[in-house]
Every structure is written in C-alpha cells, then in structure tokens.
Structure prediction request, 421 residues.
Amino acid sequence: MTAGNNALASLAGFRDQFVIPDGVIYLDGNSLGVLPKAAITAVRRTVEEEWGQGLIRSWNTADWVNAPRRCGDKIARLIGADAGEVIACDSTSLNLFKALVTALQLQSLRPDAAGRNVIVSDIDNFPTDLYIAQGLQALLAERKLELRFVKRHELEATLREVGSRTAVVMLTQVDYRSGGRYVMQGVTEVVQSHGALMLWDLAHSTCAFPVSLNACKADLAVGCTYKYVNAGPGAPAFVFAAKRHLDALDAAAVPAPISGWFAHEAPFAFDPKFRVARGVERFTVGTPPILQFAALEAALDVWLSADMNLVREASVALTTRFIAEVEQHCGGMGLTLATPRDSSIRGSQVSFRHAEGYAIMQALIARGVIGDFRAPDILRFGFTPLYVTEADVVAAASHLRDVMKLREYERAEFRARSKVT
Ligand SMILES: *Cc1c(COP(=O)(O)O)cnc(C)c1O
Prediction:
C-alpha cells in the first residue's frame, strides 16, 4: 500500500462522525463542509439547555463570553499558531478589513513609516479580498493608498519595483479557482525582505492541509470555518496576529480596527470612553453568535482528534487519483486540468475548465455528485479526506464521463443559472 492508501485507511473511521446524505458524493467541502454529528448535539444542547433553561446566566455558567477566544485557541493549534494569537469572530471579509487596517497601523509604528502606502495582492485573489482593499483605499483617501493587483508570476518583480513603499502583501494561499498553492514560507520571506508585512488568507487552507504560520513567521492571517472546517453556513471566521505584533500594538495602545464594545478593555464597565483591549481581543467587535459558535467548537473538536499530516497524505492521494481517472475516462471531451499536477503546489481541490462547465456541473449534481462552478468556466471539486473515499472519487469520475458521453449538459434544465453557483 502507498502512504496515501495507508492514510485513507487510518482516517476511514471519521466518515461516520458526519452526516452524508444517501446517494450523494460530496465534493464541495471546499465551499460548505458537511454536518458533523457532534454539531447536532452541541447546537441542541446550546439551544435547549443553555439558552432555554440557563438564559442570560449562560454567558457565565456556559462560558459563552469566552467562546471567541476558546475557539480561537483551538484554531491556533490547527494552523501552527500559539494560544492567544487567534480569535474567532465575524466574517472573513470583515476580518480582512481589520487585518489590513492593523497592517497599516503596524507600519505606522516604524520610524521609516512614511511612504509605505502600497497594498499588493494577486489579481486572481477571491474578489472579496480585493473589494475590501479597494474600500479601504476609498475610506482612507487622505492616506493615498496605492493598490497593486498583479498576476502571480509578476509578484516578485512588483515587490522589487515597489520596494520600500510596500506596506502589506495580501494573498490567499490556495487559489479558489485553480487550487494552486503559494509556498507560504518562501513567499513570506520575500515579502518581509522588502520590509512589508505578510497577510495570508487561509480560506482554502485551514483543515485542508497542515499550516505553520509561526514556523513561516507570518505576520497576519484570516480564514473561514464553513469550508474545510465543517462549522456550518455562516460560521464565525478568524483573525491571527503574531504575538510580536500584538505586543507592539499593546505597547503603543494602538486603537482597535473597529472599536466595538467587545474590543474594549472592560466591556462591562460601560465607560463612555473607549480603551482598547490587550492582545487578540482587539479584533472582536460585538456580541458573538453563540449558536454558530456551538457548531464551530464541535467541528474543531473533531479536527483536533485528526492527524493533519495524514489528512494531507490522503488528500494528495484523492486529488491525484481523481485527475488520473478523469484524464483516463474523459479524454478528448474538452476538459482541461486547471490545477497544478505537482501536488506540492496543490490545495485539496481539483478544477477542470470547460466552456459548458456550468451545465456539466448541474448534470453532475442531478446525479448526486456535488461539486461547484466558478465563472467563467471552472468545474471545481473539493476533497476532504475525513469523509470522502477513494470509491467516491472513482464513481464521480465515472459519472462525469457519462454526463459528457451522453451530452446531458445540453438539456435545458441544466442551463438555467441560480443565484448561487
Ligand atoms: C470563501 C472565501 C472568503 C469568504 O468570505 P466571507 O466573508 O466569509 O463571505 C473570503 N476569501 C476567500 C479567499 C475565500 O475563499
């Protein structure tokens, strides 16, 4: 047996901890992970006992008030960070805003801060990341921020050109379309060699493979938990800031990026004057959504019992097998691989391009093989080894072959677009 097969065999017991609907092969855990059975119990307990019976007392007796920090500390263990460096809160979009503001604040603390006003990103980054940067530029017009959104292969040349004017580089480690992955350590080093701060978006990294933020000396990071983490629709996202930066922000009493009452040093003092909390709490804003946190914590506890190195080995085995199956059975049908063949620069997804991608995916979904479509022509399949098996991979490729052979995508019913693709 290969290492991948061994890994798949060792993880096989996890599948039963999730709800997998009958007749479904679920290859969309990169968009919305499946329901952990433990989340059902946790949410029910939170609703019936903690909310129903405990009521307001549960903020203390069920420790609701510390859920963002408690979950943050658990997330930290999954992304190579330390306790106290991560907090779970809000959406990824909102956390990107806070992280970018923090990067600019950190740069302002430096003696040579003047002129560091460029935010660099990848033009193929997920749009919300680029939108948040554009919004910040408009909001801080007097700061004269400059945005440089460039192609991946232009990144290093751009950094050389912008040099000491770069404030922060914001990248999503795994490209949501292609599944191509930046090498975190190498990129972080290059960025920091220009005196810029490195902000990673871990949306498609967290619980997809081992992440080592501190070993890579990352400065800031954000990520979401409804994808590979399986915490459910609308689950809280997270923010990471390295301890050295949290200490610097504390020492200079730098304002919170959004000064809601939960970012106050003493929210229940109800003092009219804002005083920023120390540490990672500076990133919280308002009351945490406790029902969502109950599901998040249950999902995190499943992950903390898994070996992330085995998850990676199994993921590589599944994605490699899927590529081989599709290329073997669907050759000459117009599908082109959009994901790197080199597994060391691949996330846990496989994408194919096809001009009829949308309709092909709808036909697959009608057959119970659920992936998704990303404009303009990407068929996207996510592989989450805690519940996807090798048999699923083989069956999915065989359904894809049948959809192509029988030209099912030409049916009118598969061509009408819904709002969410
Ligand atoms: C999924 C995703 C997001 C989602 O942001 P939300 O605020 O949770 O909607 C952000 N960035 C990237 C790169 C993503 O893949």
About this structure: DSSP finds 13 helices and 15 strands in the chain. The longest strand covers residues 166-172.
